[in-house]
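Key result, reporting period 2: structure in, sequence out.
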């Protein structure tokens, strides 16, 4: 039985109920008394899980009005721009996976580089990487925002309510105000250089002395309320045509070198339909996002490589399980660094990377008894161009939300502005992303091009991994995703394993700790029970290992069927952020 720091207490819905087609729990798992998690169950209208309860309520309001899962997800994204400005919103982009009667559809709203951007965008005249303030906290890092175009494209296909209706909860929050919680206050203080970079942002989030507004204070954002009202009435054309010139000029004047953003860059932006990445794990079908996100491929690879191991027998207390998980990560991320980029610019061998025969070949490299000396990229079918691995950018300003509607349609949506408060540039009430720093700063290595190098009009690689899990009868049983930069696919795979292999509830699964391989180094979640397994990890060959704080934030919905056949949805939010949501 787990009695660990990493598993926060929860009022666990359906502890004795069964997840459709899932194995029964190994045992009832409890936790030390700490911060309670507000577990809810979705009934009737559907269910929403989001990182902030006020944004979650926005989605629930839309569902109650008869909106679809897509309608509710859009309302959540808009509301998060107001109450979680450090992580998401209109100034950024995202990926959305939809499951319904028409199958699985994936939408790419990733930001794009200006047409004039060059591969040396983030390098100085000597070929060295620019300092952080020029590289990140400037117009150099800003890509054309994609979330509104993504929302419009998804709404056109799967929306039920009028477009303007979806904006009303966010407009109320921005105009009437919302309370500062501990999480926003702490983030404003931790990232003051970004959050308070501009006078207009300081006027919204800081007091006259330049300190972040205190916990419990009420914030109003009238400029953003007006922006939302214009988007609601004029549609996406307000961003991509009406205000495109103002936005482009603002970003251009903050850009110290390389290609400037233009009105034409913004006018030309389109969200795209992409082929989802789907694979099998045990008796389940797992569907996620394809390139330019690496998330869907990485999750499919990790799970596929681990399928031959009896993880249920090992259990989550086992150092062997976490070792196997580490090895699978190392192998998957070796492929990620070499092959994944924007498929409109580089040939990405997606089918080869998730082919069962290839995954079996890669899995054979994993030993339960010892770590690989070095994880190297494989040679999947479909490789057309010799590429070189790039660096590994980090994305921290990200959020995930999951929605299911009364008709059983499901949406898994991950949205980001890259770093906390993005570039720090604040425009008409919202922060602009610094997403272009997700490109590799090195355009080539050993004379070979890097798949994720900067190019005009290109979308940077992402770690985002919105995922939907189906049982053997084709029913959605888990809608899951995460925020936290390169940890996102690892968190997502961990949650899926927790539910499928360990028989955990969604709340227990997202509360499991994380251990992650960064090349030859291993970092485990500081304060978790994994600390007590460090000697065992070292004995298995993971000698460069330490504990550290990790940017973890997962959300999930789990289908629960009781003995009468009645279906409800367990609503799970990562317990690590729960104490930070208090308003006092």
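The corresponding designed sequence is given below.
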């Amino acid at each position: 039985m787990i009695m660990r720091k990493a598993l926060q207490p929860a009022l666990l819905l359906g502890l004795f109920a069964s997840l459709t087609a899932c194995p029964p729990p190994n045992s009832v798992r409890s936790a030390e008394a700490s911060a309670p998690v507000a577990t809810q169950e979705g009934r009737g209208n559907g269910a929403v899980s989001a990182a902030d309860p006020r944004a979650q309520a926005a989605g629930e309001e839309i569902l109650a009005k008869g909106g679809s899962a897509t309608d509710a997800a859009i309302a959540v994204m808009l509301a998060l721009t107001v109450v979680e400005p450090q992580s998401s919103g209109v100034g950024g982009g995202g990926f959305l996976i939809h499951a319904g009667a028409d199958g699985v559809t994936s939408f790419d709203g990733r930001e794009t580089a200006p047409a004039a951007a060059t591969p040396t965008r983030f390098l100085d005249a000597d070929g060295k990487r620019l300092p952080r303030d020029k590289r990140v906290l400037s117009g150099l890092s800003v890509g054309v925002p994609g979330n509104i175009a993504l929302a419009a494209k998804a709404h056109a296909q799967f929306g039920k309510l009028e477009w303007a209706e979806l904006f009303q909860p966010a407009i109320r929050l921005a105009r009437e105000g919302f309370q500062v919680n501990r999480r926003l206050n702490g983030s404003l203080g931790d990232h003051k250089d970004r959050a308070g970079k501009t006078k207009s942002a300081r006027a919204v989030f800081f007091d006259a002395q330049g300190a972040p507004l205190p916990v419990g204070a009420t914030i109003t954002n009238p400029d953003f309320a007006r922006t939302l009202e214009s988007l609601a009435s004029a549609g996406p054309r307000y961003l991509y045509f009406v205000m495109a010139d103002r936005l482009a000029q603002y970003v251009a004047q903050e850009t110290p070198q390389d290609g400037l953003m233009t009105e034409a860059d913004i006018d030309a932006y389109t969200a795209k339909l992409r082929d989802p990445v789907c694979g099998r794990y045990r008796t389940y079908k797992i569907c996620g996002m394809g390139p330019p996100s690496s998330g869907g491929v990485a999750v499919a690879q990790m799970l596929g490589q681990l399928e031959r191991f009896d993880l249920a027998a090992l259990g989550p207390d086992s150092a062997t399980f976490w070792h196997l998980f580490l090895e699978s990560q190392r192998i998957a991320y070796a492929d990620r660094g070499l092959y994944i980029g924007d498929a409109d610019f580089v040939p990405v061998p997606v089918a080869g990377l998730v082919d069962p025969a290839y995954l079996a070949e890669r899995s054979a490299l994993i030993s339960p008894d010892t770590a690989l000396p070095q994880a190297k990229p494989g040679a999947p079918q479909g490789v057309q161009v010799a590429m070189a691995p790039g660096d590994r950018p980090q994305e921290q300003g990200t959020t995930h939300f999951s929605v299911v509607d009364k008709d059983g349609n499901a949406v898994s949506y991950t949205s980001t502005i890259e770093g906390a408060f993005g570039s720090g540039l604040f425009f008409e009430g919202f922060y602009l992303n610094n997403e272009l720093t997700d490109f590799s700063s090195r355009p080539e290595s050993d004379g070979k091009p890097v798949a994720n190098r900067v190019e005009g009009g290109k979308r940077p690689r992402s770690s985002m991994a919105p995922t939907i899990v189906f049982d053997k009868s084709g029913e959605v049983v888990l809608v899951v995703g995460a925020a936290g930069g390169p940890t996102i696919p690892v968190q997502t795979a961990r949650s899926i394993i927790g539910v499928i292999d360990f028989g955990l509830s969604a709340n227990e699964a997202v509360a499991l700790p994380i251990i992650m391989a960064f090349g030859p180094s291993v970092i485990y979640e500081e304060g978790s029970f994994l600390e007590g397994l460090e000697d065992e990890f070292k004995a298995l060959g993971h000698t460069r290992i330490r504990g550290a704080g990790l940017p973890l934030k997962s959300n999930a919905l789990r289908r629960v069927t009781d003995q009468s056949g009645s279906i409800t949805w367990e609503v799970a939010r990562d317990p690590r952020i729960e104490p930070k949501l208090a308003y006092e």
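The chain has a mean pLDDT of 90. Residues 40-274+391-581 form a domain with the Glutamine Phosphoribosylpyrophosphate, subunit 1, domain 1 fold (CATH 3.60.20.40). This case is discussed further under Risks and Mitigation.
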